[in-house]
Amino acid sequence: MPDHGGALGGKAVIITGASSGIGAAAAQVFARQGASLLLCARREGRLRELTGRLRGQGATADFFVADVSRGEDARAMVERAMSRYGRLDAAFNNAGVAMEKAPLHLIGDESYERVMATNLRGVWNCLRHEIAAMLSCGGGSIVNTSSVGGLIASSAAAPYIASKHAVIGLTRAAAVEYAAHGIRVNAIAPGLARSEMVEAWFAHDPQAEQRACRSAPQGRAADPEEVAQAAAWLCGDQASFVTGATVPVDGGRTAW
Questions:
Q1: Which domains are seen in the chain, by residue range?
Q2: What is the enclosing helix (H) or strand (E) of 90?
Q3: pTM strictly above 0.85
Q4: 8 A C-beta contact, residue 33 and residue 9
Q5: Beta bridge partners of 60
Q6: CA-to-CA distance for 66 and 208, rounded, in angstroms?
Q7: pLDDT for 209-229, tens place per residue?
Q8: What confidence category does residue 240 fall into, taking pLDDT thresholds of 50, 70 and 90?
Q9: Is 193 in contact with 22 (CB distance < 8 Å)?
Q10: Mean local confidence (pLDDT), 116-121
């Protein structure tokens, strides 16, 4: 059951990329902490099912089908949250896409544009409209999903690495610009976390899990809820003096 006196009690929150993985886990975590949610993604069936499950648990939740790479979708998403709840207190901009690994010189324009459209332009679109709404509400908190790939580099994924580095730069710029207006903007940098994509990768390559888990001191993949808990903390008032930060949630990978 939701704790309406919890860390996010009374807060209206948008979560993008909410149909699976970290976003779906965040929906559960934020709901348990008392948030009123607008869940957003491109897959309506997944959103409808998750929203129904949360409502069955006593949470306040709605959904909105949106492709955040489209500015008009991001605008309509924020308008829906404002009309549904009368305010916007927090947002978790988590929507993102991965890419097939390939050497930089063999990656075509289409692959580059697809990654940048969601991972960077999507965050940009969300920030613009969320900040405008929060200015009218007297402040708020925004968390953007970057990646360990935004802090370090790896081979054969140059557009993805570039997009996630850019998310951190955008996060810092927004944090500095709007701190005086009561808006905090932070990022999380997840390492390996279990998701549909990761599980399919492990199933395809039985040795992949061992190789991947050796890349971090804790020696395992994160449960998506472990990542979502960090986002929930940053969205809440406990993190009231944290802005412009990027928090690695990576089992120690970036400590090596």
A1: 12-248 (3.40.50.720)
A2: strand 90-93
A3: yes
A4: yes
A5: 36
A6: 33
A7: 888 889 899 999 999 999 999
A8: very high
A9: yes
A10: 98
Contact between residue 127 and residue 134 where contact means Cβ atoms under 8 Å apart: no
Stated length of the chain: 256
DSSP 124-172: HHHHHHHHHHHHHHT-EEEEEE--GGGTS--TT-HHHHHHHHHHHHHHH
pLDDT for residue 73: 98
Helices (H), the chain: 21-32, 44-56, 71-85, 109-116, 122-137, 158-178, 196-204, 208-213, 224-235
φ, ψ for residue 141, nearest 5 deg = -135, 135
Q: What is the DSSP-derived secondary structure letter of residue 193?
A: B
Asked about 85 being catalytic, the answer comes back as no
CA distance 140 to 171: 14
- Contact between 93 and 122 under an 8 Å Cβ cutoff? The reply is yes
